[in-house]
Amino acid sequence: MTIKIFNTLSGKKQPLEPIEPGHVKLYVCGITSYDYCHIGHARSALAFDMIVRYFRYRGYRVTYVRNFTDIDDKIINRAADQHTTTVELANRFIDEFYVDMDRLGIDRPDLEPKATEHIPEMVDLIAELIAKGMAYPSGGDVYYAVNCFPQYGKLAHRNLDDMQAGARISINEQKRHPMDFVLWKGSKPGEPAWDSPWGPGRPGWHIECSAMSRKYLGDTFDIHGGGKDLIFPHHENEIAQSEGANGKPFVNCWIHHGFVTIRDEKMSKSLGNFLTIRDILNHYHPEVLRFFIFSTHYRNPLDFSETAMLDAAAGLERLYACIAQVEALAKSRPQPGEGSIGRKDLEAIDAVEGRFQQAMDNDFNTAQAQGILFDLAKIINRLCKTLPAPPAATDVEILDLATRTMKRLAAIMGILNEEPAAFLQARKDQLLAGLDIDEDRILALINERYACRAEKNWARGDAIRDELLAKGIELKDGPEGTTWSVKRS
User: Fold this and answer.
1) CATH top-level class for 283-425?
2) Which of 188, 211, 250, 288 is an S-S bond match for 242, by CB 3.0 to 4.6 Å?
3) In angstroms, what CA-CA distances link 214 with 51, 133, 230?
4) Domain 4-278 carries which CATH code?
């Protein structure tokens, strides 16, 4: 099987064909470090964490580079507001970024270059563009001349005339063309500055990724990624800079993930629907956020809501409960002898990993992959209910191997890494928090209800159900007894 990836540049899925066989080189645009990370940052970091994990699971060596933008207008302005330096502010929020990423269980990239540590490489790249007539100094700044790059707009699938007609561009007499963009900004009083052939200043945003990706991955590399909001102008400008300077294709495949919305509105501080990662993790386990994000294909819009998060928590709980059930079977003193699991179920279990790979090979379809994990859980749950007591040791070994497969595949999405019993208990505690009842009282009332039903005291049994429901607890009677859950509001 071959991994196929949707390439923004071509507008279609294409097979993964690394330039160096067996070695994928990947660059992802990281954060601008001036504030706490929000759920959009979480989606980006988690999407590429999953992609890298899957590449490695499939046997590829990966060089994963993700940068930090640690100097730009936002950082300068925020540092001034907080009466601190840009260095202190940027480093503080890089540290906070790591706090969030570590809580989410995100693996560190192989390289994490900072823009301010690569000024010489940016200056050299700008000088090359000027020498080729593709950039020009003007008024202490340096601009890229978009008219010199005929393919400008190919990533966004737009032409220069259409972009110019639809753009809101302030009049700037220093530019030769309204769409020209800045490569080097001349310094202003009180701002950080570095020396350059064009006077003191600092790099523009777009040039940093061209310079750093070239240093660590070469003139041409396999994959560049980021959010859809980066397609234009950031990634479009990177292509113009890099291909203009190097005369070679910049990137073979462009991966862009979809936007995050809050109740179908674009997330925005001005709308008051801006959620940081730590806001969310104050209420939900990190794996719940992971499960929620991967329940939607990475290219599709992702709408955050409490209902969606509760659904994700419930789904994750079902998978953990399945694993816990098998662990309980393993402790029930299985007996030697012939197992009872039939060939059809054995074949269905054996087929799970291949089905999972097929879903993930199709542009990392985590939503479908999650469904395959649930298919496996259904088989395991059914078999657990039908096995004799005590079960045969061979059957328990088969189910244990099946849950190990489930956990190994789920680890690509960063879920099912906790101890099932601890996760399930924490989930119960969280559900009961704020309710006027605890688990001991719930279980006592359920046992009382069992006794009432045995005595055919139906009125008291119904009264217990109503009492629990009034406290937010729903009962469900089944073949294995009565279970309880917190009523969804």
Assistant:
1) mainly alpha
2) 250
3) 22, 20, 19
4) 3.40.50.620
